Each structure stands twice: as C-alpha cells, then as structure tokens.
Amino acid sequence: MAGTPVDAALAVASDRPSSASAGIGLKAQYYNEVLESFPAVDWFEVHPENYMVEGGPPLRHLGAIRRDYPLSLHGVGMSLGSCEPPTSSHLDRLAALVDRFQPFVVSEHLSWSRTNDAFLADLLPLPMTREALATVSTNVARAQDHLGRALLIENPSAYLQFRDQEIPEPEFLSELVQRTGCGLLLDVNNLFVSARNQDFDPVAWLDAIDLQAVEEIHLA
C-alpha cells in the first residue's frame, strides 16, 4: 500500500493504551463526530476488512483518527477454523494495514467462514476436536508468522452441540495458547450465548480458562 501524508502522523498517538483502558468499535457514521469532538475513549476497534482498499475516504478518516487514538484491528475474514489456511492475499492486505496503522493488538475469531472458493457471510462455530485444534493451531501460526506478531483469538458463539466434541472449549483455547503463543480475547456475550445454547455454567467455564492469556474483553 503506497504511503500517504497521513502515514507521517500516525505515531502521534501512543501505540498502546494503558493496561486498564476501555475502547469502542468505530463505525463509518461516526467518523466526523470523532474527529470534531474527540470523545474521551482510550482507543477504537475496527474490522480491518473494511479498510483493505487502495485509498479512499475510509482510509483517510481512519488515518486522521489514528493521530489521536490507538487502534485495535479485529478481523472477521481470516477463517482460522477452515481446513484451508488463511489466504496469502488476505494476509498481505492485513499486514499492510498493520504496517500503516501500527495497531496495539490484532485479533480474530475462533470460527470458520470459508470452504474451497466459497465465502460464507457468518462466523461459524467448529467442533472442539483434536483434528480441529491441530488445524487452527497451524492456521494461527501461519498468520502470526506472516504478520510478525501474536494474535488474540476470540471465543466463539455456539448455536448447537456437536456430536463429536472431544475437548472442552476452555481446554481447547488454553492448548491453542500453548501451541502458538497467541493470546485470548474473551467475549462475554459469546460466552453467555454458548452457555445458554449448550446448557453449561459460564462461571465454571471462566474458572477453567487460562485467564493469564486473556488480554482483551468484549462486552455487548
């Protein structure tokens, strides 16, 4: 991605907020309000897929906001649970955004949305099996190697119980951390949805997870 005058100003804001901080998701309809009023939030989170373009207003607005706020990139398109690895083209575009905006964190969902050449517009859950763990670990490692940084992986929403479930989700996530060096993004809403749909105790789930690996929490 070619450099622009915006790039020179990106280092003005701190690359990383304090450890006790709160951010919000940034939507296009709020660009002007943010740039005019500078709300008292610590950082903004965006979906990088909305900015994987060459130029245009979204990138200009995001560059202007980055002057004053740290950014978090929260991906929805890597499809880490697919049998196929993340595509080089997607990782290249993501790496270009990381280089340009220097986000303090890059995260992605434990889900799948791609099979062969078909892309499904949803973040679909996967069975917690040893085969799935091996596949996700390989895909996470590939993405981290390409980006040159660790990812945070978000716990998914589960709508049903897979028949061939082999590993409890907390164990699956903790093992993924051990194998890849990734961190975790704890989505409280996703945990609530999964607990309701699968009839388990969310507090017991939290007791079982490696909380030392949790670096970010989503509330909704």
Give the CATH superfamily: Divalent-metal-dependent TIM barrel enzymes
The count of strands amounts to 9
Instruction: Give the spatial strand order of the biggest sheet.
Output: 1-2-3-4-7-8-9
CATH-defined architecture: Alpha-Beta Barrel
> What is the number of helical segments per DSSP (H or I, 4+ residues)?
7
The 3D shape can be described as globular
Spell the H/E element sequence: EHEHEHEEEHEHEHHE
| N→C terminal distance | 33 Å
| Uncertain runs | 1-12
Radius of gyration: 18 Å
Largest pleated sheet: 7 strands, parallel
- Structural class of the secondary structure composition? alpha/beta
Beta strand %? 15-25%
Helix content: 25-40%
Number of domains: 1
CATH class: Alpha Beta
> What is the overall pLDDT average?
89
CATH topology: TIM Barrel
Describe the protein's architecture and organization:
The chain has a single domain, classed as TIM Barrel (Alpha-Beta Barrel), CATH 3.20.20.150. The longest helix has 18 residues, at 130-147. The strands form two sheets. It has a seven-stranded parallel β-sheet. The protein has 220 residues and is α/β, with parallel strands linked by helices. It has helices at 31-37, 57-66, 88-101, 130-147, 169-180, 188-198, 202-208; strands at residues 23-25, 43-46, 71-74, 105-109, 112-115, 118-124, 152-154, 183-187, 214-218. The protein is 36% helix and 18% strand. Mean pLDDT is 89; it is low at 1-12. β7 (152-154), α5 (169-180) and β8 (183-187) form a beta-alpha-beta unit.
